[in-house]
Amino acid sequence: MKRLLLLLVILSLTGVGFLMAGGQQEEATDEETEGKTKIVYWQYFYETKKETVDTLIERFEEENPNVEVVHQTFPYENYNTKVASAVPAGEGPNVINLYYGWMPVYLGSEYLQPLPEEYFDTAEIEDEFFDMISAVKKDGSYYALPTAVRSLALFYNKGLFEEAGLDPNAPPQTLDELVEYGKKLTKRDDNGNLLQEGMTMMLRGQLHHWLREGLIRQFGGQPYSKDNTDVMYDGEAGYDAFEFYVDLNREHELGEPQFMTDDVTAFKTGNAGLHIDGSFRLGTLDKIDELNYGVAEIPSHNGVQSNFASFWCHGITKHTSGKELEASAKFLKFLTSPEAMELWLENVGELPAREDIALQEKYRQDPKIGAFIKGLKYAHATYFIDEMAQRKVWLDAYDRVMLQDWSIEDAVDKAAEEEQAVLDKHYND
């Protein structure tokens, strides 16, 4: 009995010792984190972007040891739903990554606050950044800033060029050549089943941008009025541009929208010869050792060059205040610094948002980046009201022609009618 009592005493004392040690360790941890301001950064998941932001956070925290940045990502499809449920409740991120085309929705829903002027001087921003960022300015204030900007270019598989008897160093320069090359790069079996795309055809990817800001302008039109309040493509230029796009599949049979599940998969697996995409794709494709590809400017038409430009940007949510606001402003300032832009270009492939960084000779002469840099000169950033709804009108127009046998003119007119309703609702509100 005495031995049992002694054992219980020893165990209880040992347990107390463990508890005391644990308490002291927890206290030390609390002391280490005391005085730190924690902020949360949200973006949608894209592997190279996530990796790059993680690296930038490490560098930022080294320079700002009193700030801790928590990085959270979400699937693209669910991203805005998460934002809509968290931010109005005063929860979620302090600094948020958003597509510039969502800005009217984000401002209308009061998700964001103006960037603090003591950190972000308006005159300095307008002197150093590309003009397209005016899309995130309202009533004299900027509500977000980008690390990088994008344009489109033509990706082409050099190995498939050689197999088709094409010069791997001479990509198509005009739309006529695009069709000609695409036909030579297309492979089908005896039953007509597609084996290799001459050109990728997924309109919901980057091709609706090419159609809107590239083809419509190259065929002599413009997508919107100068004040962005009216749709302008329901006429000959719009009809001709859309017919050219539809006929890449309908007449020339260069590809199919769902081939290999999606355009990017088809190109990166070597099953597509031509592919129009954004500069952000470079970071992904460069990781594929067996893919030998080149990049060229978007083909011209009748001597006209036109391109689409866009960007993702970082804003500060409305509920952020006090020390969190100060820390958030410092972090956003770092995310849009020249250092961050250089790293972003190296890792992701997107172009620096500051003109003097992007237009350095080393980038202008780069065999892959150079095409995107040149494309910025004649690119247009669509002022979206509701990017998803405005994309959908073209997807529906394509389906009406290909699946429901609508005429080109009727499909374009219907698209214009539907998109005009989106614009009217916004401007009337």
Based on the model shown, name its key terms.
429 residues, alpha+beta, D-Maltodextrin-Binding Protein, domain 2, 2 domains, 8-stranded mixed β-sheet, 6-stranded mixed β-sheet, 16 strands, disordered N terminus
Tally of separate domains: 2
The number of distinct helices, counting runs of at least 4 residues, comes to 18
Contiguous low-pLDDT stretches (5 residues minimum) are 1-32
**Shape from CA axes?**
globular
CATH topology of the largest domain: D-Maltodextrin-Binding Protein, domain 2
**Proportion of residues in helical segments:** 40-55%
Task: Report how far apart the termini are.
Answer: 85 Å
Largest sheet features: 8 strands, mixed
* CATH structural architecture of the largest domain: 3-Layer(aba) Sandwich
Counting helices, strands and paired strands, the structural category is alpha+beta
Radius of gyration: 26 Å
Query: Quick check: average pLDDT?
Result: 91
**What top-tier CATH class of the largest domain fits best?**
Alpha Beta
**Total beta strand runs:** 16
Q: What is the assigned CATH homologous superfamily of the largest domain? A: Periplasmic binding protein-like II
Strand fraction equals 15-25%
